[in-house]
Amino acid sequence: MRVPGARTRTHTPNWPTRCPGISSLTMDPECSQLLPALCAVLADPRQPMADDTCLEKLLDWFKTITEAGSSLLLLQENPCLVELLCHMLKPQDLSSRVLSFSLRLTGVLAAQEDCFQYLQQGELLPKLFGEAGPLGGAAWTSPAVRSGWIQGLRSLAQHASALHFLAHCGAVDTIFSLQEDSSLFVASAAGQLLVHILGLSMQGPAGGPPSLQAGDWPACAQKIVGHIEESLRATATPQITQALNVLTTTFGHCHNPWTQVLWVQLSPLVAGLLEKDPIPAAHSLVDLLLSVARPQALRAQAFAVLLQPLACVFKAMAQDPGPSGVPDGTVGGSMTAGVPLPSKAACVGLLCRSLAHLELLLPLPQRPCPWPQAPLLGAAVTLLQLCGGSARPACDMGRHLCTLLLGCVRVQRAALDFLGALSDGTGPRELVTQVFAVLLEYLRSPDSSPTVLKKAFQATFRWLLNSPKTPGCWDLDPHALLFLRDLLPVLQKRLCSPCWEVRDSSLEFLTQMTRHWGGQAGFRHALLASEVPKLTEQLLRDPESYVRASAVTAMGQLSSQGLCVPPAGPEHQGGQQKSLLVELLHILSTDSEGFPRRAVMQVFTQWLRDSHADVAGDTEQFVAGVLQVASQDLDWEVRAQGLELALVFLEQTLGQPRSHCPHAVTPPVEAPVGPLAQALQPLCRVRLFDFAFRALFDCDRPVAQKSCDLLLFLRAQTASSSSLQESRSSPDVASVEAALQRWQAGDQAQPLGDLEPEVVLAVVRSLDLEGLRGALAESSDHVEKSPQSLLQDMLATVGVLGENEADCY
Amino acid sequence: MPEIRVTPLGAGQDVGRSCILVSIAGKNVMLDCGMHMGFNDDRRFPDFSYITRNGRLTDFLDCVIISHFHLDHCGALPYFSEMVGYDGPIYMTHPTQAICPILLEDYRKIAVDKKGEANFFTSQMIKDCMKKVVAVHLHQTVQVDDELEIKAYYAGHVLGAAMFQIKVGSESVVYTGDYNMTPDRHLGAAWIDKCRPNLLITESTYATTIRDSKRCRERDFLKKVHEAVEHGGKVLIPVFALGRAQELCILLETFWERMNLKAPIYFSTGLTEKANHYYKLFITWTNQKIRKTFVQRNMFEFKHIKAFDRAFADNPGPMVVFATPGMLHAGQSLQIFRKWAGNEKNMVIMPGYCVQGTVGHKILSGQRKLEMEGRQVLEVKMQVEYMSFSAHADAKGIMQLVGQAEPESVLLVHGEAKKMEFLKQKIEQEFRVNCYMPANGETVTLPTSPSIPVGISLGLLKREMAQGLLPDAKKPRLLHGTLIMKDSNFRLVSSEQALKELGLAEHQLRFTCRVHLHDPRKEQETAMRVYSHLKSVLKDHCVQHLPDGSVTVESILIQAAAHSEDPGTKVLLVSWTYQDEELGSYLTSLLKKGLPQAPS
Question: B349: which strand partners?
């Protein structure tokens, strides 16, 4: 179908120029022209919408327009919009989606007071949102319509007139009832709307501060508060939940004086809920209490509640005579045992929740002081021992806990996370020893699930990082080194696990450790004495690509630190390192999966940056070899990483490290006259420009961008150098430019051949790189997602749907 | 009240993205975690805040199940697990586990291409998410925890697609994901046993369609490709890396072989090898024909289909190219399209659905002048064809599956409301079961009557066995014993054992009843008459006349006494233990009818 008003533009033959894009902030004439036809389609119930996202995107566009300009003007300039809204009032078989859209659109428009008045004149608002509208009709059975109604009101409730309207059209009562809607979405939106209206009405008509006497509050606010009070007194849990959720949102959103008045008024009712047995809507109640937990007294109480499940664990284990010597529950003072932990599900749930909350609390400045670090550490260790089966409880309750928690992955996960988080604080030496012992137990245990093992590795790393150090020395302390001696055999075993997840997590852990302590004698000694480097090397040929990628990273790190397996005899002198380079190159050129190839490129780039011994030997040969393979790679990230490596080489060759931001203006160096051409020679020899120019037109945007950045950097570096012969008009330049033209058109069959530095510079200077960079900075779908494109798509779909029915994957 | 609750967060009366929450016997399971390809912001993901309102995701959910690798079923997974925060297990089949990260990476690339994409996951997140996956085999019962178990069934649709049965105790739900009831070129048909779940949650994409035979569509496809190639045109088929692409490749390969065609066929981005690798690895998941011929010739080792190089697009003469991505929204397929669009000899065949905001959507809706980057206008002169090869069950197939599984009720998802309405009525009429179709955010609640497991003591069991009957699951029988409820456990034991365990003394409980008989004779004679009568009536029972004059039938004791006021009437005292309640009541009713006349 030929779309009326579609733009026809002449083809721009040359280099891409900065595309101004289609301004979505105002309605451009083309869109205005398409709008009447679209409104007509929307109003026609026989025309189904092809794609359920269209109306959402259309509304997004209207929101952008109205946020930037006058809604009234928009309506006056596009009368078809009001016609569409009026059309919704006619009794007919309307699509619920279009009706919902219209309600939301009305709200967006009426958010501006003058536009609200304009729509009021036509009685459009009461007709759409009042009893006479969809509210009373069959359409109301659709949750989409109810949701549209609420969202429409939510948008328009921005000013005093709207508040007046809401109070008088009976909307508030409807919103009350919608809190109990069968749709979660509608019910939740209704609650949010109530909070919004309450806040709006408390802003006062003149914007002045509201009265601190609840009795003097505006009628609308009083009505809502009355409703909340009534709900809090109700016997039905859903009603109480709704009221609590509304309060939580209210207190979470604003901390005005009036909210404090409200809390004072309602807290007795809330406290009344706590006295019921069982406590109704417990979860919502917790949320509310957390959101109002401002007074110190309440915070202390809340903390005590959080500690209770752990205190129970302590109590159960307190009589433990075993060698682990778990500290007594009373040590912390604040950790006093209370209710016993009942059934398995409740016990696990309570413990997980308690641990998760404590973990969240840990880094906060307002966490309770003093913080019972040692007892908490003890509790985490005990829990892990209980779950792992190494605890030896002496009393019945302890044994009961043991049976409940043995092998419980949920608690293991939560406790390991918490234990890791606790590493930021200190602990008595004896307890820290226990921490390492329990971590080792988990790393060793064949029962640890891959997720648990991963968390155990993470926690171990955090504890090693924070283990006490000798001042001025970054090496591991003697205790940690002793631990390391036990750890490495475990790591060795885990690297051979049949589970790829375990092998991968082990390699990630090894990489982290090597990165931190690879230079330290103690660590190096222990690692080299183990089989770990050899096993890591073997994992380069793992059947799982993720593991191969992690092995590449780990080997790269080991090699950087000189921690690869030492050659077996004098005949292998230096052979090992070489073979790693060859092995990685082999992976880069042959691995069928992208992840290992990407990892190789990252290692190579790092090696080049660090002037790794193998690379430094013959850098040019290395770079040429890597770029040749990377430029042909099918994975865009490998190509992009190849350009990153090229950039590092470029920087090193020109002797000018790139400023942190590639786009920053770097003052051009006064490059010595003769050496520039010379300096560029190696770049030409490694065929860096062939790759860069080709990448400029890569079908994957990030690659093209990277290349653009590289060439811009080169141009900036050589800007001041006028010494090179101006070879703009030489036949070489012409042929390169012609080749680039062809490439841009998509024909990349022919290589550029050998390029001379002069030609490269001339071409780089002639390219509109800024324009290209601007074009690439746009989203790849910026044309398709423009408002005009959206309108055209919606119109084009009309009549086609019959043939191509809505489908999916 | 025990119940099953289902709330779709996605796929409720739409086909955007599947994400369905199921609560069954206190366990919470999330079925699929899909992404909507039509949005570039957070709206592409299901709104998980509705779950987090009930606590942390990890604490609330017991597990997540992914039915297959399509992004509208698994695309939100890394966001869900690594950004929202879910540490629990994620279940999927082995092929899905292998292919999922490839498609997620593919989509991540598109997201990176589109600037302004916020909140998108990284490669590391995809990997970390995949580490939480537990892969399952078909028909293997996997124990998620002590009570919750799941089982996968073959679903057709795409490689590795599965339907899942979720079971807690005697309650169960089956979720179909997307499925196909007719076999295609490389996959078999969906199958499930008569598992009689409480609820069957089924997709309903083609709820009102009876699809034409696949053969017709295939013939049509081949004819179009053939014609275009014969006329020297180039044919572009935009596809997603895995799925339909493989089926169409097999189709073309066979046709080329049969017709001895020479025009080259290419498959872009090196995915053929990767796809081959997976199809070889998971050969058991393909259909019978492919499995059978695999030994002689691997269907996925193509003779005519070669890897594509960017330079080939400019080669003269006809060719067919499969290129990714499938909606012409970026990358290679779009690049080739732009190059070939101007020639009316060329053809683009869209084998699947395209969301708004893509070039694929535009050309399918008939737009022929497309604005391209840099304000260029591309005139599309090439032929545009749409052929849906998506493999979903049609209305007939859905009814067939309902018939196979015999659920107590059905719930429709992944379809359009109007079509669902029609199918709902059909299902309700034909199978006499309730059928639901909740919109997103709406909760369907089904009451259930769970059976509670009771342990039986060995002693009691032995006693029953001694009676000669072996236990048979299909023939329930009555068993007497004492039910002990302790520590939320139920045990059935003999009453003696119960007394012993609970330290209680035994009480004898007897029922007594008086029956008035008109009989002027002496008590002993009346008793004798009663004895003779019962002896003749109750031939299978042990009837005795005791020396003290009383009569017994099993534990029932009958004594005759004189009436205090009426000498012509005798009173029969009948007494029995509760174990013989049935016989006792029978005897009293028998005696109340009177005794037969004594022979004179």
Answer: B385
CA distance B281 to B135: 15
**pLDDT value at B588 more than 60:** yes
Q: Which domain holds residue B31?
A: 1-208+389-443
Across the interface, whether the CB atoms of B361 and A793 are under 8 A apart is answered yes
Asked whether residue A774 carries a pLDDT value surpassing 70, the answer given is yes
The domain of A535 spans: 311-318+343-360+369-565+580-621
* Number of structural domains found in chain A: 3
Hey, which residues does B235 pair with through a beta bridge?
B320, B347
Alpha carbon of A699: minimum distance to chain B alpha carbons (Å): 5
Contacts of B266 in chain A (CB under 8 A): none
* Number of domains comprising chain B: 4
A345 and B26: CB-CB below 8 Å? yes
Amino acid identity of B161?
A
Tell me: the pLDDT tens digits for A575-617? 555 589 999 999 999 998 889 999 999 999 999 999 998 888 8
- The CATH number given to whatever domain includes residue A142 is 1.25.10
Q: Which of A53, A183, A777 sits opposite B115 (nearest CB)?
A: A777
Q: Test A7 with B123 for CB contact under 8 angstroms.
A: no
Classify the phi-psi angles of B136: left when phi > 0, otherwise alpha if psi is within -120 to 50, otherwise beta: beta
Cβ neighbours of residue A566 closer than 8 Å, sequence gap 6 or more: A528, A576
The model's pLDDT over A518-565, given as tens digits with 9 standing for 90+, comes to 988 989 999 999 999 999 999 999 999 999 999 999 999 999 999 986
Q: What is the pLDDT of residues B235-247, one digit of tens each?
A: 999 988 777 788 8
Q: Does A343 lie at the interface with B, CB-CB under 8 angstroms? A: yes
Residue of A nearest to B179 (CA): A809
Distance of alpha carbon A147 from its chain centroid, rounded? Answer: 28
- Do the beta carbons of residue A704 and residue A743 sit within 8 Å? no
Query: CA nearest B88 in A: which residue?
Result: A410
Alpha-carbon span B500 to B226, nearest angstrom: 86
List the single residue in A1, A410, A450 with the smallest CB-CB distance to B131: A450
Q: Would you say residue A483 lies in a domain?
A: yes
Same domain assignment for residues A412 and A515: yes
Q: List active site positions of B.
A: 203
Residue of chain A whose alpha carbon sits nearest to that of B366:
A1
